[in-house]
Design a protein that fits this description.
mainly beta; ten-stranded mixed sheet; three-stranded mixed sheet; elongated
Length: about 300
Amino acid sequence: YFNVSLKPTSTIAPTFPNVFSGVPAGFTLPLQDITTVDPSFATLYSINGNLSISRQLTATTGFTATYLYTRGNRLPVYRNINRTPSGSTLADGRPIFSGTGLEYPGFGNIISAESVGQSNYNGLNLTLTKRLSRGLELFGTYTWSHALDDAPEQNNIDSGAFFLSDPTNRRRDYGNSLTDRRHVFNANALWTPVVNSQSKLLRYLASNNTLALAFNAQSGEVFNLASNQVLNYDTSTPATFQRPLFVGRNTLNAPPTVQLNVRYTRLIPINERFKGEFFGESTNLFNHTNVTGINATAKVDAAGNITTP
């Protein structure tokens, strides 16, 4: 199927209200781009494993260490199968494709969905928990992890349309996943003071108060460093997915993100059935600047060398 858009003054435009009954004489249909599915396409699957060790430190405090592993197989990958290498390469080995050579003449770009991608995730999680006692409850968790894959999928959060920088060698795109966060730390604290005093006023003022803190710190967002022009003459791959020379996938890191949230709650007893509540809360209490987007496109020359970062 294809569309033909014409101005009313075109010599091959039908006179209203007539319609086309076929391809109009004098019209040359350009090469059509199509999308296909590889005949051997198969359902993806994953292998998962974890090992966890827990230790009670005190009557109310426990520690847990967990190792997690996930292996993804048959992840869908999209690539252009209708371009032929010209014999020339970029300095990092990526092939430069012929501007006219086609594997399947009669078509333009043929984007094939193939179930060939692989991913792996390794993570170590350390968790310290203190159950509520004497008015204090604590929870802290730290995770070191590394997520890698060679499948920049179009179906997930890789910006919705991610392509291989070298459709002839998927391993060239093996690198950090877009969701890779090397370090993540979260901590929560809940404090409800318990005051034993003979003073009724002091007990009233100090009781029924709750202070909750939530702290998060993690490695910054990762970005794929892009070029401002197509380097390999594969027109199906936008310039934003053709990295400069010798740059790995998703190797550009934003600064770490840090945030402290706080909430104070005060219960006001009225009688046995009714209580009032006052609360105040703040997100990002110290107004720390967290970078979630950066300009990830570098100006390059025709050979892929960065001229302007």
